Amino acid sequence: MKNNLLIIGGVAAGMSAASKARRIDSELKITAITDDQYVSYAGCGLPYYIGGKIPEQSQLIARRPEDFAQQNISVKTRVRARLIRPEQKYVVTENLETGQLSEESYDRLLVCTGARPHIPSLEAINLEGIFTLRTVHDSLAIKAYLNQHKPKRALIAGGGYIGLEMVENLLEYGCEVILLERSSHLLPNMDEDMALILTAYLQSRGVEVRTSENLSGFAGDFRVREAFTDKGSLPVDFVLLSMGVVPNSELAAAAGVELGIRNAIRVNDRMESNLPGIYAAGDCATTKHLVSGQEVYIPMGTTANKQGKVAGENAAGGNARFAGVLGTGIVRAMEMELSRTGLCENECRQLGIDFISRRVKSRTAAHYCPVSGEIHVKILVEEPNGRILGAQIVGFAGAAKRIDMLATAITMRATVESLIDMDLAYSPPFSPVWDPVLVALNQF
After folding, report:
1. Which of 41, 263, 71 has the alpha carbon at shortest distance from 280?
2. Alpha carbon distance, N-terminus to C-terminus of the chain
3. Beta bridge partners of 372
4. From residue 2, how far is each of 29, 104, 105, 373 by CA, in Å?
5. Choosing from 44, 175, 284, 369, which is the catalytic residue?
6. Which conformational region is residue 86 in: left (phi greater than 0), alpha (psi within -120 to 50 degrees), or beta?
7. How far apart are CA 344 and CA 352, in angstroms?
8. pLDDT, one tens digit for every residue, the chain (444 residues)
9. What are the phi and psi torsion angles at 360 (to 5°)?
């Protein structure tokens, strides 16, 4: 009898796991169930679909159930996992179209249930015109609302990646945009001095930025007309809640799977949970930080794909391992690019790590080139050994992807001394003679 791999979840982690498991074992029975009708879609592209930069929603769908069927992978959509029975090795499922309950047996189970938007308990939170953005359905609903009601004042609650990407795309609809962040600065996973460069830029483009301000409720008839904060009220007719995510770990926890930080499913580097034969990957699972060595919860699409690949290989009999993450991230806010990797200053302080930091302002290309833009590079270094701990970049015209160079260096546990003479490529359209990263490293 063939071994049976059952996967709960049909987006990044789940479907990358299914594909990898199939490459490892051509005979393995693989079934994936998801309560959505869409699978294997690019969630990070949703803001740009809303803004019209991606014309068709179908362009965000990487593969469909029928594509997986050609690999002999069964994908069951609109089926929700209700209960895991680890002793009997089956999952109780519900067909969301018919309400029928069934049992799906497994030899190995992979939980890729992802995460959901954090929705605070606020007055009138269910008014029409208040949205979250996580799924294809969310993007379709937001786009339809914007086209039908043509809101004039849009509030984005949350100054993280999705919130910033939606600023640009709401401006495409002619909205006045208010960006609200409860922390002291936008992009709380970056340092304040770098985030303030972004704030000044957004304000110069007409965006109202409000930090250190907490959302407290809404008012309206059946549609949102006003938002309340701890500092007053704001007339609004569209709201996007982009206040982080919560791991969908309840199903696994009810079956006895151990949870870790932020109530995400605790896994080892093989993506195994504490229960034999049950794996987890993606936005529902923990991982390890490569600098601190600590368990962290940093849900990212890139991490979900990598963890899924490892989990799929091991569930099919392999021996892969996932080392961990640096929290490397990148975002664009109109023309401004921002990126970060490793630790920021506040994280170093919380961990008790002695560090020094340096920040430089330079150009992305030779100053006489039309494509040259401003770039700020900040690097954090451990004392006294000079090991690079983290880096952040803010700028224009190709600035942000330089973070990959620094993410590589941190992964290799490089020091400033080992990098200051790196032989980096130079040509006026791409870089000054001294690349901004080298300029920053030479400040230590």
Report:
1. 263
2. 62
3. none
4. 6, 15, 12, 58
5. 44
6. alpha
7. 12
8. 468 999 999 999 999 999 999 999 999 999 999 999 999 998 899 999 999 999 888 899 989 999 999 999 999 999 999 999 999 999 999 999 999 999 999 999 999 999 999 999 999 999 999 999 999 999 999 999 999 999 999 999 999 999 999 999 999 999 999 999 999 999 999 999 999 999 999 999 999 999 999 999 999 999 999 999 999 999 999 999 999 999 999 999 999 999 999 999 999 999 999 999 999 999 999 999 999 999 999 999 999 999 999 999 999 999 999 999 999 999 999 999 999 999 999 999 999 999 999 999 999 999 999 999 999 999 999 999 999 999 999 999 889 999 999 999 999 999 999 999 999 999 999 999 999 999 999 999
9. -130, 155
Please state, in angstroms and rounded to a whole number, the distance separating the CA atoms of residues 113 and 61.
Answer: 18
Quote the tokens at residue 184: 């002291």
Q: What is the 3-state secondary structure (H, E, C) of 290-314?
A: CCCCCEECCCCHHHHHHHHHHHHHH
Choose among 369, 372, 374: nearest CA to 336.
Answer: 374
What is the rounded distance in angstroms from the CA atom of residue 282 to the CA atom of residue 9?
10
Name beta bridge partners: 232: 229
Neighbour-count burial for 91-120, b at 16+ CB within 10 Å, e otherwise: bebbeeeeeeeeebebebbbbbbbbebeee
pTM over cut 0.70? yes
Helix residue ranges, H only, 96-217: 136-149, 161-171, 192-204
Chain segment 229-263, per-residue pLDDT in tens: 999 999 999 999 999 999 999 999 999 999 999 99
As to burial, measured by CB atoms within 10 angstroms (0-12 exposed, 13-18 middle, 19+ buried), residue 245 is buried
Question: What is the spatial distance between Cα 7 and Cα 11, in angstroms, rounded to a whole number?
Answer: 11
Residues 286/273, Cβ–Cβ less than 8 Å: no
Q: Is 44 a catalytic residue?
A: yes
Query: Prior bond to 384 cis, omega within 30?
Result: yes
Contacts of 13 (CB under 8 A, 6+ apart): 112, 114, 281, 282, 283, 285, 304, 305, 307, 308, 311
Can you read off the two tokens belonging to residue 18? 């299914």
